[in-house]
Structure formats: C-alpha cells, structure tokens
Design brief:
- InterPro entries: Amidase_Cbmase, Bact_exopeptidase_dim_dom, Peptidase_M20, Peptidase_M20_dimer.
- This is N-carbamoyl-L-amino acid hydrolase.
- Its EC number is 3.5.1.87.
- Belongs to the peptidase M20 family.
- The chain is an alpha+beta fold.
- 33% of the residues lie in helices and 22% in strands.
- The chain is built from eleven helices and 16 strands.
- β3, α3 and β4 form a beta-alpha-beta unit.
- The structure holds zinc ion (ZN).
- The site of zinc ion has 5 residues, from loops.
Length: 414
C-alpha cells in the first residue's frame, strides 16, 4: 500500500482539534479564526507533500504538485474545510487529508505525475456563513460572475469583502481572471453521510450521480370552525387532508425501495388552536432521486393524488411554488477508472447516488467528475457522533491514490 494510514490519522487528529468543543463538536465556519487556523495547518501538510500553496480570490486553499508536462490540464481533488455548527470531524476534512496523503506518498517515492495534480480545501461548502451551499467552488468556477460581492453579508452583518480584506485578498473575488480553468477532472473523497454502505458490508462507494430535487409548496384550504359544534361529517379539516397526503407520500416512497426519498418537512397550520378545526395548512414536499424520469413521475403522482384529497376532505389545494434541480451525473469514464482501480486493488465498491450535495456537484457541470464515498458508521453526519472505520478509510484513500495516479498519467482526453 503506498498511502500511509498513520499519516492520515495523524493529520486528521491535528485538524480535528481546531474549533472543537469539549463535547467533541467541531465548528469551523468559513473566514473564522478557527477556519484560518485550519488553513494554515493544511498549508503545512501540503508543503510537506511537496506542493506549492496558494489561496485563490475567494479563499479556497490550493496545493499544486507540478506535473512533468505543465501544458496539460491538471487532475484536481479535495473537499471542504468548513463545517456546520457543531459538526463532525470527517465531513469534508477527510477528503482533503486523503488527497494530500496521496501526493505526499508520491513525493516520498520521488514520483512525478505527467499531469499536475492539485488539492483544494474549499471554503464555505456548507453555506453556514452566507447561506449559499458550495459557495467556494461556485465562485471559483465562475458561477457568481454576475453577482456583486458586496451583496454577501452574514447574519451578524459581516461582509464578504471585509473577510477577504482580512485575509489579504482582493476586492474582486468574482472577476473573470480569477476563475479556475485548468482542470482536467475532479475527484472528491467524502464520507457517505448515510447508511447505505454500512448496510452493504462497508463497501467503498462510487457515486453515480448527485440526486436531483423536486420541491413543492402546497396550500390546503378547508374551513376553520368550532371544534365542538361542527359535526364530523360537516368538517373541512385542512390538517386531516394534509395528514392523509403525508401518509400517501411516505408510503409510496417506502414502497419504492430506495429509488427515491420524499419528505414533508415543514407544516404551518392555521389557526393552530386547540379548539378550532384547522382551516388552512401550508406544507412543503421535497422529492430526491438520481433518475430525472422518476423524479418527474413521483411529482405527477403526488399532483394526481391532490384531486382525490380535495374530493375526500372537501378542501381546496393550491400549488404555491414549485422548483426542480436536476440530478447531476458523475462522469462515466471517471466512474469507470475508479471501479477499475477498485478491482485491481480488490476493494469492494458499490455504485450509488449521493443523496446530499457536494462541491463535486458544481465541478461536474464544468469538468469530468467523480466521487468516492467512505461509509459512515450508523449513517450519522453533521454531528459530533460522525464516525468512519479506519481500515475502510485506508482502502478508500488507496482507491483515490490509484485513480488520481491513473488520471494524472493520461495524456489523452477523457
Ligand atoms: Zn461535506
């Protein structure tokens, strides 16, 4: 094995304590002193691994291990360095540390890839500071070119430009000349954050696509009336209608055996009083699937069900808003590379969708992209109880190393 698990663990333990409270929760919000301290630490790891280190115009930390042919586009890896409030030690951090270890092992063996390999520690993936997920990767790939940087202000009134100034960065984070344009492909190692791989006997995950999301906001209007004097037959109870719809959505999704998930996560009930038949309910529906046809099919089924609900409960249902984010497939050739290396290394891999968003989802819209998932014990994430098995981490890191090596040795187009 060329990567050194002890090195990964050592780096991981050093990073873990930055922003950690006594109960084990980690808070490293982008641009905070803890975040900056973590950047300094990762920079030192990158330098030890033989990389040149820079911070781009938005605050992403980039380590560059120069290839033999610098006219070729670079193979890029990495993950995010920020955390949610009171998060875990593995989310994001593991993908950076594993990628740096791949390069460190090459540096130790004096191996120089044909293509340059870059490792990025992204800023603000969680969106905790400015409310936009994958902020760092979106910015570096030019998705904010139309935005005014002055419009980004956090909940305490701190501005993006103020933070950039503190870091000694310029005032034009979204200008065209700061876009990241030299990527050949992007591979992100990340914890699964769900329980599918654990169920699959701790296989390493190879992501097929980041799921798409279909969202609906509905308003169900019945009739608010006296909870004592209104007979059961005469009621137009909006909450009972909502409950029936929620059960339907849940049971349909349960029967789909993992092909999609659906959630009613938010309810507003009027007048929300103990002695009044609920007159109106507003609710959100969120459907996620990697299959765009299924996503649309489920949405249509739910809308079809609304007619029945209206009739059965004598209510009116209006769709207030609707929006869809399509699934983002990972690149077939990158998936093939990862699976092939997995076979060579005799690592059990399982293809699966990612049910959460990642920086890889942004990269996939620009360059060929793939993701490697490490199983999450108990499927827990965004929590101090986040945990993964070190033997499986070693396998996943070795898989990343083999894949990066193969892609960085490729002089052809993907
Ligand atoms: Zn993450």
């Amino acid at each position: 094995m060329s990567i050194d698990l002890a090195q990964i663990r050592q780096s991981f333990e050093k990073l873990k304590v930055i922003g950690q409270n006594e109960a084990g929760g980690i808070t490293r919000i982008s641009f905070s002193p803890e975040f900056r301290q973590a950047q300094v630490l990762i920079s030192s790891f990158m330098e030890t691994a033989g990389m040149e280190v820079e911070i781009d115009s938005i605050g992403n930390l980039i380590g560059t291990y120069a290839g033999r042919d610098q006219s070729l586009l670079a193979v890029v890896s990495g993950s995010h360095l920020d955390t949610v409030l009171n998060g875990g030690a593995f989310d994001g951090a593991l993908g950076i540390i594993a990628a740096v270890e791949c390069v460190r092992s090459w540096h130790e063996q004096n191996w120089r890839p044909l293509r340059t390999v870059q490792v990025i520690a992204f800023i603000e993936e969680e969106g905790t500071r400015f409310g936009t997920v994958c902020f760092g990767s979106r910015a570096m790939l030019g998705e904010f070119s139309e935005k005014n940087p002055e419009s980004f202000i956090d909940a305490s009134g701190n501005s993006l430009l103020g933070f950039l100034k503190e870091m000694g960065l310029g005032e034009k984070p979204f200008s065209k000349d700061s876009f990241f344009q030299n990527g050949f492909c992007f591979i992100e190692l990340h914890v699964e954050q769900g329980g599918i791989l654990e169920q699959a006997g701790m296989a390493v995950g190879v992501v097929s696509a980041i799921v798409g999301i279909s969202r609906l906001v509905l308003n169900i209007r019945g009739n608010a009336n006296h909870a004592g004097t209104t007979s059961m037959e005469l009621r137009q109870d909006a909450l009972v209608a909502a409950a029936s719809l929620i059960s339907y959505i849940y049971n349909q999704a349960l029967a789909a055996k993992g092909n999609y998930v659906a959630t009613v996560g938010k309810l507003d009930v009027w007048p929300n009083a103990e002695n009044v038949v609920p007159g109106e309910v507003r609710l959100t529906i969120e459907i996620r699937s990697e299959d765009v046809v299924r996503l649309e099919g489920v949405r249509k089924e739910i809308i079809g069900k609304l007619r029945e609900i209206q009739k059965d409960y004598k209510v009116n249902v209006d769709i207030i808003t609707e929006n869809q984010v399509p699934p983002i497939p990972m690149d077939d050739k990158v998936i093939h590379s990862i699976c092939n290396i997995g076979k060579q290394l005799k690592i059990t891999c399982k293809k699966m969708p990612s049910w959460a968003g990642h920086d890889a989802m942004i990269f996939a819209q620009h360059i060929p992209t793939g993701m490697i998932f490490v199983p999450s014990i108990g499927g827990i994430s965004h929590s101090p109880a986040e945990e993964s098995d070190w033997d499986v981490i070693a396998k996943a890191a070795q898989l990343l190393e083999g894949t990066l090596k193969e892609l960085a040795s490729n002089s052809e187009d993907l």
